[in-house]
Amino acid sequence: MSTYPIHETFHSWQGEGMHLGRSAYFIRLFGCPVHCPWCDSAGTWHADFKPKNIQRVSALSLASKAAQSGCEFVVITGGEPTVHDLKDLTSAIRAEGLSIHLETCGAFPIKGNVDWVTLSPKWAARPLEQNLATASEFKIIVEDATSIERWVTELGPYFGERPVWLHPEWSQRSNNDVLCSITNYVKKHGAPFRAGFQMHKLFKADLLDSGSLDSAPLGGNPSLGF
């Protein structure tokens, strides 16, 4: 049975998307080759934050802890979780009777059986067509007032009727131009576009679990390369 490099595991609630507010157990894996300049999970890949010794945990142990938490479902995230073969992990979680959600940029093949895929595309690593076809929902990160139109031009034909969440990039969450671009786009176009936000950060919900770590850094710092 495989082991996986773990950044953090914690019980909280899903703060985004269609499953907002539901009890969830998060498994955040190390590793990401995409390196978004505004990454709020830089601790999973940046040299300034990665520990010298990365803990590896068995799929069976991860699944057991998730089941013991009392959660409704498990979220596998990162970093970019699909750089790992997730078959053993998803099999172990499913054996515990839990459904599995995956958060991914969509640029790498998904190895494992999951129930829900949140695809958040990134310019540095374009999504594979097979992942665009099977995504359950999309999450567009709105970095500036032009972000939405650029992503719609790039991926619009793939969206169909699946929800497309428009999230302000966290360091821009008070930027009026960014917020207005989201509001105006949703008002003008309606479905499948929806305004989104990282509600768990407002509640500081994740940090109430001792297994959760402070984001490193919040919003990123391009001058430091993350």
Strand order of the largest sheet: 3-1-2-4-5-6-7-8-9
Q: What is the annotated CATH architecture?
A: Alpha-Beta Barrel
By secondary-structure content and strand pairing, the structural class works out as alpha/beta
Overall strand count: 9
What is the CA-based Rg, rounded? 17 Å
Report how far apart the termini are: 33 Å
How many domains? The number is 1
Number of helices: 6
Helix share bin:
25-40%
Order of helices and strands: EEEHEHEEHEHEHEH
Briefly, what CATH class?
Alpha Beta
Return residue spans where pLDDT drops below 50 for at least 5 consecutive residues.
none
Structural shape: globular
The amount of beta strand, in percent, is 15-25%
Classified in CATH, the superfamily is: Aldolase class I
Mean pLDDT: 93
Largest sheet: 9 strands, mixed
CATH fold-level assignment: TIM Barrel
What is the structure about, briefly put?
By secondary structure, the protein is α/β, with parallel strands linked by helices. The chain has helices at residues 59-69, 87-95, 129-134, 147-159, 176-189, 199-203, and strands at 3-13, 23-29, 56-58, 73-77, 99-104, 116-119, 137-142, 164-168, 193-195.
General description of the model:
- With 226 residues, this protein is of the alpha/beta class.
- It has one domain (3-224): Aldolase class I (TIM Barrel).
- It is 26% helix and 22% strand.
- The chain contains 6 helices and 9 strands.
- The chain has helices spanning 59-69, 87-95, 129-134, 147-159, 176-189, 199-203, and strands spanning 3-13, 23-29, 56-58, 73-77, 99-104, 116-119, 137-142, 164-168, 193-195.
- Strands 3-1-2-4-5-6-7-8-9 form a 9-stranded mixed β-sheet.
- Helix 4 (147-159) links the parallel strand 7 and strand 8 (164-168).
- Helix 1 (59-69) packs parallel to helix 2 (87-95).
- The longest helix has 14 residues, at 176-189.
